[in-house]
Structure formats: structure tokens, C-alpha cells
UniProtKB/TrEMBL annotation:
Record flagged with keyword Nucleotide-binding: no
Quaternary data: Homotetramer.
EC number of the protein: 1.17.1.8
A Pfam short name: DapB_C
Native source species: Rheinheimera soli
Gene: dapB
The protein's name in its UniProt record: 4-hydroxy-tetrahydrodipicolinate reductase
Family affiliation: Belongs to the DapB family.
InterPro entries: DapB_C, DapB_N, DapB_N_CS, DHDPR_bac, NAD(P)-bd_dom_sf
A molecular function (GO) term: 4-hydroxy-tetrahydrodipicolinate reductase
Length: 269
């Protein structure tokens, strides 16, 4: 079986990935922290709060990438760009959960996937990936007359908005309605906005406390409304999905794969 390493293993998702590995006895062989981090040498399990794993944090480098076959990256966009280069140099597969990517940063993921196998997904939970299908059906049935709004809520520490998941929901709905999201997206409202243009897709962002991640797609018509909601209650749901993606990547050819493919949902009607 292939071995797996975690990049940015001290982050919130990094710690969840380490804990899931310990709980399910998954093949974790490396955990890295940023170069120069004071955490270097500390035990990854102890820092994750799941007990000693006898796995010391190493500094991220091309040499460190030799410690595992497949790497999981839940860091930040700038760090991810460095990790892409290291993984291409070391010829290692990557699972990337980083959100808030610019078009250029996403293009770098696409470019790297010509050389190595990559799964990138803004949300690794089963429920959200199912929701991405459900909203297409809802859009096709109600979208010509209903107003569509996407509402997301996350913890106070989150750096990007709207969430990567909210953007993915928006893209799926826009695609189902043959609209271009960039043309119809409205990110927040203030002042005398005028009446709502039915063709728009609105986004609303809530940030507070320790909310793990809530997403609602609202289809509001006159006389009725449909709300499709997903609520994550633990980061381990994302971590389990990322582990599933990592093990799925074993022996895959270079290419950019989706969580829909990992979960076998790509062909759902
Ligand atoms: N796809 C999915 O299912 C999910 C995606 N996410 C996404 O994952 C990402 C991480 O989230 P979260 O774990 O909450 O974030 P954290 O801030 O807790 O962790 C970020 C990690 O990235 C490292 N890092 C940040 N900047 C740099 C840098 N410039 N160079 C090297 N290392 C860096 C941090 O190291 P240090 O501590 O040294 O700064 C830390 O290890 C976000 O984009 C989030 O949206 C989150 C949950 C689920
Ligand atoms: O930052 C987070 O925490 C999360 N980010 C992802 C996103 O931006 O969609 C997924 C999840 O909701 C948690």
C-alpha cells in the first residue's frame, strides 16, 4: 500500500488528518510544517491531541517529500503553489483541499496535473458532493422563476470568502441554467440596491465562533421556497474524504481528478 504524508500538519485540517490516520490506522509516514517552524521535531500525534504517533514533524522540502508516496495539502494558496512545485520535482501525487484560489493559482494546479496525479476539491465531504448534484436538479426545475441565493457560515478564523464550496455550488447552478457565474453573481448587498434581478445568483457569508462549515442553496419563488442545506459537525468528515482521495490516487496517471470521481458520483444524473 502507498504511504501518505500531510503538508501543513499543524493546521486545523492538518491535525484532523493526523487524528483520522491514528483512529483508522491509515498509512501516514510523514507530517511537515513550514520551513523554520518551532514545531519541527515535535510529535504530530501529540500536537493533534490524539496521543503519541512516533512521527516527528519535518520541515517541508523536496527531500521531505521522499518520506511518502502521496501528499495531502490543506494549507493556504501561496504555500500550495510551493508544494505543487515540490511535488512535481519529487513526482508525488497530491490531494489538495485549499480554497480561495485565484484563477492563476488554479491554472498552476491544472499545469502541475500534466505531470502528477492530483485531486483538488473545495469540499471533501460526501454530503456536499451529493449536494452539488441535488442543486443542479433544483436549478433545472425551479431556476427559471425562483431567486437563487447561496448562504455559507464558517468559523472566525477562515480567511477566504465566499467559501470554496459556495463558489462550487454557484458554478454548478449556473452551469445547469446555462448562465455564466461571473456575469450573474452578486456578492453581498447594501444600500438602495433596487429590486432583485431574477437571473442573479446571490452569495451571503457568515463568519463566527467555531462553525465548522454550513452551506445552503436557497431557491425562493412566490408562494414556496426550497432550501438544500449541508452542515458539517466535525472536520474529520473532510479529513476522512481527503484520506479516501489519497488512497484512491494510488497508481493513477497524471491528471486533475475531482472528489466526484473519488466518490463514484461523477455519473449521477
Ligand atoms: N476541501 C475541504 O474539504 C476543506 C478545505 N479547507 C481549506 O483548507 C485550508 C486550510 O484550512 P485550515 O486547516 O482551517 O487552516 P489553518 O490556518 O488552520 O492551517 C493552515 C496551514 O497552512 C500553513 N501555512 C499557511 N501559510 C503558509 C505559508 N505561506 N507557507 C507554509 N505554510 C503555510 C500553516 O502553517 P503555520 O501554522 O506555520 O502558519 C498551517 O499549517 C483552507 O483553504 C480551507 O478553506 C478546510 C476544510 C475542508
Ligand atoms: O475553511 C474551512 O474551514 C472550510 N473550507 C472549505 C470551503 O471553503 O468551502 C470547506 C469547508 O466548508 C470548511
Amino acid at each position: 500500500m502507498s504511504t501518505v504524508g500531510i503538508l501543513g500538519a499543524n493546521g486545523r485540517m492538518g491535525r484532523a488528518l493526523v487524528s483520522v490516520a491514528k483512529e483508522h490506522q491509515l498509512p501516514i509516514t510523514a507530517a511537515t510544517v513550514r520551513a523554520g517552524s518551532a514545531l519541527t521535531g515535535m510529535d504530530a500525534g501529540e500536537l493533534a491531541g490524539c496521543g503519541k504517533l512516533n512521527l516527528a514533524f519535518t520541515e517541508t522540502s523536496v527531500a521531505a517529500l521522499a518520506l511518502a508516496d502521496i501528499w495531502i495539502d490543506f494549507t493556504m494558496p501561496e504555500a500550495m503553489l510551493v508544494h505543487l512545485e515540490l511535488a512535481v520535482q519529487a513526482k508525488k501525487a497530491l490531494v489538495i483541499g485549499v480554497t480561495g484560489l485565484t484563477d492563476q493559482q488554479y491554472a498552476a494546479v491544472q499545469q502541475a496535473s500534466k505531470h502528477i496525479p492530483i485531486v483538488w476539491a473545495p469540499n471533501m465531504s460526501v454530503g456536499v458532493n451529493l449536494l452539488l448534484h441535488l442543486v443542479q436538479t433544483a436549478a433545472k426545475v425551479m431556476g427559471q422563476t425562483a431567486d437563487i441565493e447561496i448562504i455559507e457560515a464558517h468559523h472566525r478564523f477562515k480567511k477566504d470568502a465566499p467559501s470554496g464550496t459556495a463558489m462550487a455550488i454557484g458554478h454548478q447552478i449556473a452551469k445547469a441554467l446555462d448562465r455564466n457565474l461571473a456575469d450573474v453573481a452578486v456578492y453581498g448587498r447594501e444600500g438602495m440596491t433596487g429590486e432583485r434581478d431574477q437571473k442573479t445568483i446571490g452569495f451571503a457569508t457568515v463568519r463566527g465562533g467555531d462553525i465548522i462549515g454550513d452551506h445552503t442553496a436557497l431557491f425562493a419563488d412566490l408562494g414556496e421556497r426550497l432550501e438544500i442545506t449541508h452542515k458539517a459537525s466535525s472536520r474529520s468528515t473532510f479529513a476522512q474524504g481527503a484520506w479516501r482521495a489519497a488512497l484512491w490516487l494510488q497508481n493513477k496517471q497524471p491528471g486533475l481528478y475531482s472528489m466526484q470521481q473519488v466518490l463514484g458520483l461523477a455519473d449521477l444524473a
